[in-house]
Amino acid sequence: MWKKKIVLSFLFYLISALGISLTIQAGIGVSSFNAFNVTFATLTHLKVGTVTTAINFAFLGTCWLLDQQRKIQDYLIILVALIGFGFVINFFLYQLFGSLVFQNYLVKIVLFILGTIIAGIGTGQVVALGVLQFPIEKFCTLISERTRYSFQFYRYLVDIFCVSLALGLSISYHLPIFVREGTVISLFLLSWVISWSRKRGQQRILRIQIKKLESE
Hints:
Blueprint: H1 2-26, H2 32-44, H3 48-66, H4 72-96, H5 105-129, H6 135-146, H7 151-172, H8 181-215
């Protein structure tokens, strides 16, 4: 069962990366965290997936230092998943979607919403399976356990920091602004889809466990 969960978690991790790629390709702005990643990638001429993986590595390293119950196996699995995550983003953005240009604004909106839904479903299923974690969420959980502030407080704080940094870099270095209408759409839609997907995943796992108990 654990091995199956690992495989499914990797699959949904990569599905989430596909969704993120679509939101970036839409060109109407991206989520708060990805706004910083795309801005920094534009500034440094690095690929977005590479920057995303590097930033996640930084959060994962911080989690390792904070986590008093850390298990090297769990962190190695997340490390491998993050490498695949960045690879998939780069593949879709620069190989599969690289030559595609969308001029129609309505098409861009639809593409962004589709990408957000796909990313949300993938993320929600990963959370429901409970084997892999996204480094930012793990970081916020660990910090909240050590302070009087909630997970949500720190998660929003990370979002605000990423948006501020993205805007600051764009203004300072005259880069395109990636905090746009897509960022607002993501703010409301992504959390809802993740929550919906997580609940569906947990219900599915519960049904499987009940059937297993009944068959014994």
